[in-house]
């Protein structure tokens, strides 16, 4: 009998953000908004004599996940299957950490609440420098608006009450840690303006428009990304850049209509789902 | 072309609660905990020249829904199909109100955020006296713990990170409004004790055990309900009473094993889902 657990979590594309550092990783985080993609990350976790983390069958260092396993005192083999690329603005490290927190808690018959588990995964992502707001967004699903930064108890979320298909194409990695270690003043200012705009009109089209404006003002666009976005807009579509990756996302079939070979996704309607013989959904 | 929208929401079985009245319906609510049942309520909403609310094809007064339609200034025909009985502790009125809030917002191309829509549905349920905590629980899905009462911005939620099958049988209605209008001191005291216990050990079995204790201490059990719960416990199962209804719920197949002809459900992994040609999930 395989005593492993299968856990599914959404990917999270951040459209815009402001960084909010803090000494306590539960209070640190980001405000901003994005879109979650249904079931994009599947994690299998089972007890093992040694800790091992595989992403797409290859041993991979994911410090956020190591933090979660240490905090929960679980030695496990973690295999993640991801339908989105790493280092490209989909929050994959946070997603695997979140899946592990829920899976390890159940395997160990530990008695943590959902908020505690989200907090542990969020802290792991923050301390690793791989994400500031992905974990809380991935737990909510939908199109989360991060009103206040931080883990449950500190952060505050809202959401856009809409669901539309989403497409993306990825053109290579960007280092979140490097960009966040640099001067983020322009980013933070542009992120605050975008959040204000989205709160006035919380729709998916406004989210993309504010994200587009944010990417330009924060000076994060490359020529290649700018060209793709312009191509989508030329066919009447809505597109922007995923933060932080060389990735363009679009509503509906905007990228396909502009002639790109894009990856289609549904928006997530739920966050973490433990899938197994006793917990199917 | 049918321009209607189909919206699915979970039912919510409350295991225990404390009432927290307040002049502002957004601040009023309850603390406590319960279990949400996947896709138990389906609501079809479309624009119409006159307001009409049907539950199971019969014209039905649902004041919480009327509040939502008035607040959003939408005239619509609302048809709800429910897999759980009315007035039996499943939060049906709150569920229909929540579905209507999301559906009417989209039909009217209004630009409310998720938190605003949850608030409007919550206020409708509170003002109608039909529910105090169902709406916020139904939006979260899973097994929600209501730490602080009220709509988003006031209330605070946690959850039990587990999913197990649930069964129920209903033996008739109980009036939430009547019980809440009476002396709720014993209820509120028992609810606070149960919440403290569940926060120490946030598992589904503890939820049922605390609910069982609550029902006895708050003096809400009838002989019939007590017998059914005892029968489930006699076969090693976990059961308690749904608040507020003559309904028994059990984990896994506890009721079937005790010989009852029970209704099986999956726990909900998500809250509101707008299902339609453009928003399938």
Describe what you observe in this structure:
2 copies of one chain form a homodimer. In chain A, the strands form 2 sheets. In chain A, strands 1, 2, 3, 4, 5, 6, 7 and 12 form an 8-stranded mixed β-sheet that branches. Chain A has a 4-stranded antiparallel β-sheet with strand order 9-10-8-11. Chain A starts with a strand and ends in a 6-residue tail after the last strand. Chain A has 281 residues and is α+β, with helices and mostly antiparallel strands. Chain A has 9 helices and 12 strands.
Keywords:
disordered C terminus; homodimer; 36% helix; 281 residues
Largest interface: A-B, 39 and 39 residues
Number of strands of chain A: 12
Helix fraction of chain A, binned, reads 25-40%
> What average pLDDT do the residues of chain A reach?
93
User: Residue ranges of chain A: pLDDT <50 for 5 or more in a row?
Assistant: 277-281
Would you spell out the secondary-structure blueprint of this structure?
Two copies of one chain form a homodimer.
Chain A: E1 5-20, E2 29-47, E3 52-55, E4 58-59, H1 63-72, E5 76-82, H2 92-107, H3 114-128, H4 134-140, E6 144-148, E7 156-159, E8 166-170, H5 176-181, H6 185-200, H7 204-217, H8 223-234, E9 239-241, E10 247-251, H9 254-257, E11 263-265, E12 273-275
Parallel strand pairs in A: 3-5
Antiparallel strand pairs in A: 1-2, 1-12, 2-5, 2-6, 3-4, 6-7, 8-10, 8-11, 9-10
Helix pairs in contact in A: 1-2, 1-3, 2-3, 2-4, 3-4, 6-7
């Amino acid at each position: 009998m395989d005593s492993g657990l299968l856990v599914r979590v959404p990917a999270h594309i951040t459209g815009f953000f402001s960084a909010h550092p803090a000494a306590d990783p539960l209070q640190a985080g980001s405000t901003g908004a994005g879109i979650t993609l249904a079931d994009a990350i599947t994690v299998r976790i089972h007890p093992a004599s040694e800790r091992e983390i595989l992403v797409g069958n290859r041993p991979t260092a994911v410090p956020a996940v190591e933090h979660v396993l240490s905090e929960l005192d679980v030695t496990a083999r973690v295999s993640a299957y991801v339908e989105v690329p790493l280092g490209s603005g989909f929050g994959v490290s946070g997603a695997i950490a979140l899946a592990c927190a829920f899976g390890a808690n159940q395997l160990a018959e530990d008695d943590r609440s959902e908020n505690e588990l989200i907090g542990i995964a969020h802290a792991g992502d923050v301390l690793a420098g791989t994400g500031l707001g992905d974990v809380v967004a991935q737990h909510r699903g939908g199109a989360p608006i991060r009103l206040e930064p931080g883990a449950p108890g500190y952060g505050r979320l809202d959401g856009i009450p809409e669901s539309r298909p989403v497409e993306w194409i990825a053109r290579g990695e960007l280092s979140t840690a490097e960009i966040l270690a640099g001067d983020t003043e322009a980013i933070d200012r542009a992120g605050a303006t975008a959040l204000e705009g989205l709160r006035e009109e919380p729709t998916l089209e406004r989210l993309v428009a504010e994200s587009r404006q944010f990417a330009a003002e924060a000076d994060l666009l490359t020529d290649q990304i700018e060209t793709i976005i312009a191509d989508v807009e030329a066919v009447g579509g809505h597109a922007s850049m995923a933060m932080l990756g060389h990735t363009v996302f679009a509503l509906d079939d905007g990228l396909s209509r502009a002639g790109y070979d894009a990856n289609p996704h549904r928006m997530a309607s739920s966050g973490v789902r433990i899938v197994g013989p006793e917990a199917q959904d």
